[in-house]
Structures are given as C-alpha cells and as structure tokens.
Amino acid sequence: MVRGLLLATAATIAMTVCAHAQTNGFIDVSRTNHDDGFDFDVTGVGGAIYHGFGNGFGVQGEIQYDELDFGIADAQTTRFSAHGLYRTEGWAIGALVGTTDLDGTQFDHWGVEGALYFDRWTLQGSYISGDLPAVTIDRFNVAGRYFVTDNFSLGGGVAFGSADDFDWNSYDLNAEYRFNGAPIALFAGYSRGDFEDDDVDSVRFGLRWDIGTSSLIERDRQGASFNDVGAYIQDIYRLD
C-alpha cells in the first residue's frame, strides 16, 4: 500500500504540472470485487494525463497500481500505458503501448482504439493484445456512453477475449456522476465474465478527481477518456 501512496503522490505532482501546462487529467481510487465462488478484491490507485497539440493530435499517459487481496495471499501489479491519438469533433483514432508488472512477471501489451462522438452519445472500441510467458491474450471491446447531463453518464459494453485456444465474453454496465461546482466524480459498475468453466461477477466503485476539465462530457471528448487497458487487465485477473 505504501507503493500505491507513492504512485498517487507522483500522479498528483504530474497533474499539477499538467494543469499549468493547459493539459488535463485525473487521479482516482477504486475498489473491485470479483466473485466466481471464491471472492477476491482489487484496490487501485492511479492517474491519467492528456495533452493535445492543437492540431488534432494528442497523447495520453496512464499509471495504475493495484493490490489484489485473495484472503490467504496478496499480489501487486503496476501498469504504465501510453496512447497516441488523433481527434476531431466527430471521431478519434489512436494506438497504445504499455507494460505491466504482474507480481514480478513482465507483461507488455499494445493495441488500437477509436471513438465516434454524437450529441449525447459516445461509441468507443478497442483491440488490445499482450504476451505473458506462456500465452497471448487478445481482447476486442465495443462500448457506449450516454450523457444524461454534462455530468452524469450511463454506459455499457461487450468484450470478446481469447487466450490461445481459450475464449470468453464479458459484459459491462457503468455509471458516473460528477458534482456540480466540484471536480469530484463518483463511478460504479457491474460486469460479468462468461468463461468456459465458470462465470465471474464483478462490482466496482470509486472516486475520481478531475483536473483541467469542467465536466464529464468535456473529459470524454477532450481529455483522458480511453480506459480500455484497465478493463483488459481486470479480465486477466479474472482468468487466474
């Protein structure tokens, strides 16, 4: 947990620097419970930074620390990801690379991603692949978000994953609410993973501090809103 606090402090400093540089980002803390007959919890702290260059091109960086509590044992992961993006008012496209330390095992991943922006709707998709020492894990995801107001969104998605000759599907429902007049947002979600031998139900909730954006829809269209790597890693947790 000390390591997580150090990462959160580093993220806070980075966010402050970015705010002065007219970029934006966020810091969040979260808790996820996975239940497949044997419960385990994931406590996470992380942050993301987005910088636009004024010509449609931009970059997003992420850092995430997770602590997995299995009851009889613990594990830790640290993830770093970088995205190169091109955005217009109607769509976005990008590529990502990253690396994760899965409790001492190095796990590199890469992918492509994109989004379509409508008045109150955002459709987003991604393909992410990574290599563990004995297996390649691929995941294709399609998701949508509807902004009931500028600071309240409802969303859902479906993902198709494979690990060599093992396939699964996962489904997600989520919501986020940002307080008017404050840069604090609450988020929650439910997901279900349909694996060949078992099903896993997951519930998550958390608190997010936005820096440099004035609403959820602004973060979605002009900020650090590409977050499929986190869902990809959570699916890997559920595979174990």
Strand arrangement in the largest pleated sheet: 1-2-3-4-5-6-7-8-9-10-11-12
Q: How many helix segments?
A: 3
* Average pLDDT, all residues: 89
Strand element count? 12
Largest sheet: 12 strands, antiparallel, barrel
- What series of H and E elements makes up the topology? HEEEEEEEEEEEEHH
The chain-level structural class is: alpha+beta
Work out the radius of gyration: 17 Å
As a percent range, the share of helical residues equals: 10-25%
Uncertain runs with pLDDT below 50, 5 residues or more?
1-13, 15-21
The proportion of strand residues reads over 45%
In whole angstroms, how far apart are the ends?
22 Å
Overall 3D form: globular
Description of the molecule:
This protein is of the alpha+beta class and 240 residues long. The chain is built from 3 helices and 12 strands. A 12-stranded antiparallel barrel has the order 1-2-3-4-5-6-7-8-9-10-11-12. It is globular, with a radius of gyration of 17 Å.
